[in-house]
């Protein structure tokens, strides 16, 4: 008589991580460890991680990762679980995957999806960790990352956003994240794959809002960095976070009028805004922009060793959307962030004008 259980007979799910930067490497390792510790019956132990090939200290980055179990370029000083295998060929990395975890900087997503088209399993589904969005060339309006993934690959796409600074997740200190999905079966699978004592998940159906918040907080984090560069202090920074959160909510409500406050108070909203405005790359670079007078592009090249700032691109996209809707004056922080990045106005102009924010005009005695 066979001693096989039904779990043995059930086909295990294969996971591929599409991306291997700072966050990509950290989440790949978390997933690798989670699968090993409690997911062996449900998931294949080997996790494929697509890694764009490049040379690091005379060695191919994929070979370096697979030899040392560390991504010395994008996540130095943190070991990656050794069941994560870096694969340089995108099609090879994703072809057998049931779950595709997207975590490339947002400017590379469309090309990555195009290359994957026709090379993935029909019943696969995606989870996007990418913070950013596009402007649709036809409508001049917002085009979400999850929509690009869904439309290009014809698969379901969940989103995961939250206060998740990669090196802290890699150091295994507590954090939480928000999953957006309306698909119960997929949310149950993602809970088994990622949720742990040190990385708690909460689930909501508001996929679009969760994704928009993840992108918008990068813009407000840059403004917090500008104010810190100007040595404005904690009171001003706190005011920027409050006014910024207000604008983030109003922006989301352009698309989801009836959304309740609950979602904005989750990790994807207030918590990510706070974490990113204390210690994110967009915050740090914006602070340095004020202190050095270098452009953000120069700072990114000098300081980030190939990592990518998402704030400046998203600020430009939001500016375009608001301009097209004739709403720039209702969103002065979102508007001015782009003008500062583009060196059209000085950061001080923004901080000097905080007292004229529309928020103060609608609440006067
Ligand atoms: N780093 C963090 O703490 C967090 C990042 N995120 C989000 O995750 C996404 C990915 O961020 P990271 O993993 O930090 O990336 P990163 O900022 O470390 O970017 C480097 C990665 O981009 C890849 N890359 C460079 N050129 C490319 C190209 N032409 N095509 C495809 N890939 C290319 C590199 O190979 C490398 O894997 C972003 O949207 C970011 O906002 C979200 C939460 C935390
Ligand atoms: O999204 C992040 C933390 O949740 C990281 O933000 P940065 O890209 O600004 O580092």
UniProtKB/TrEMBL annotation:
Its EC number is 1.1.1.8. NAD(+) binds at residues 19-24, 108, 166, 281, 310. Substrate binds at residues 131, 281-282. Residues 14-186 form the Glycerol-3-phosphate dehydrogenase NAD-dependent N-terminal domain. The keyword Oxidoreductase applies. InterPro entries: 6-PGluconate_DH-like_C_sf, 6PGD_dom2, G3P_DH_NAD-dep, G3P_DH_NAD-dep_C, G3P_DH_NAD-dep_euk, G3P_DH_NAD-dep_N, NAD(P)-bd_dom_sf. GO terms for biological process: carbohydrate metabolic process; glycerol-3-phosphate catabolic process. GO terms for cellular component: cytosol. Residues 206-351 form the Glycerol-3-phosphate dehydrogenase NAD-dependent C-terminal domain. The active site is at 217 (proton acceptor). Keywords: NAD, Oxidoreductase. It catalyses: sn-glycerol 3-phosphate + NAD(+) = dihydroxyacetone phosphate + NADH + H(+). It holds the Pfam family NAD_Gly3P_dh_C. The keyword Chaperone does not apply. GO terms for molecular function: glycerol-3-phosphate dehydrogenase (NAD+) activity; NAD binding; protein homodimerization activity. Belongs to the NAD-dependent glycerol-3-phosphate dehydrogenase family. PANTHER family: GLYCEROL-3-PHOSPHATE DEHYDROGENASE, GLYCEROL-3-PHOSPHATE DEHYDROGENASE [NAD(+)]-RELATED. This is Glycerol-3-phosphate dehydrogenase [NAD(+)]. It comes from Didymodactylos carnosus.
């Amino acid at each position: 008589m066979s001693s096989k259980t039904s779990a043995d007979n059930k086909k295990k799910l294969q996971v591929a991580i599409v991306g291997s930067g700072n966050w990509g490497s950290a989440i790949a390792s978390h997933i690798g460890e989670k699968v090993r510790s409690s997911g062996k019956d449900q998931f294949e132990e080997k996790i494929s991680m697509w890694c764009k090939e490049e040379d690091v200290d005379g060695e191919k980055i994929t070979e370096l990762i697979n030899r040392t179990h560390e991504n010395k370029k994008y996540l130095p000083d943190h070991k990656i679980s050794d069941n994560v295998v870096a694969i340089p060929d995108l099609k090879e990395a994703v072809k057998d995957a049931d779950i595709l975890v997207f975590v490339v900087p947002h400017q590379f997503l469309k090309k990555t999806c195009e290359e994957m088209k026709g090379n993935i399993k029909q019943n696969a589904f995606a989870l996007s960790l990418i913070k950013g969005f596009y402007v649709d060339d036809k409508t001049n309006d917002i085009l979400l990352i999850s929509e690009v993934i869904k439309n290009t690959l014809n698969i379901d796409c969940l989103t995961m956003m939250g206060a998740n600074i990669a090196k802290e997740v890699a150091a295994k200190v507590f954090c939480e994240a928000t999953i957006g999905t309306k698909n119960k079966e997929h949310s149950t699978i993602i809970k088994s794959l990622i949720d742990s004592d040190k990385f708690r998940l909460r689930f909501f159906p508001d996929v679009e809002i969760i994704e928009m918040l993840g992108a918008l907080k990068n813009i407000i984090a840059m403004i917090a960095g500008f104010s810190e560069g100007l040595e404005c202090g904690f009171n001003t920074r706190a005011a920027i976070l409050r006014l910024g959160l207000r604008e983030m909510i109003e922006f989301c409500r352009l698309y989801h009028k009836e959304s309740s406050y609950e979602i904005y108070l989750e990790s994807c909203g207030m918590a990510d805004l706070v974490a990113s405005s204390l210690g994110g790359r967009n915050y740090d670079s914006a602070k340095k922009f004020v202190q050095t007078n270098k452009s953000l592009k120069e700072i990114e090249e000098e300081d980030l060793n190939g990592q990518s700032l998402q704030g400046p691109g998203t600020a430009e996209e939001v500016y375009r959307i608001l301009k097209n809707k004739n709403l720039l004056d209702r969103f002065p922080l979102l508007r001015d962030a782009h003008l500062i990045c583009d060196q059209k106005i000085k950061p001080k102009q923004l901080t000097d004008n905080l007292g004229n924010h529309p928020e103060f005009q609608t609440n006067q005695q």
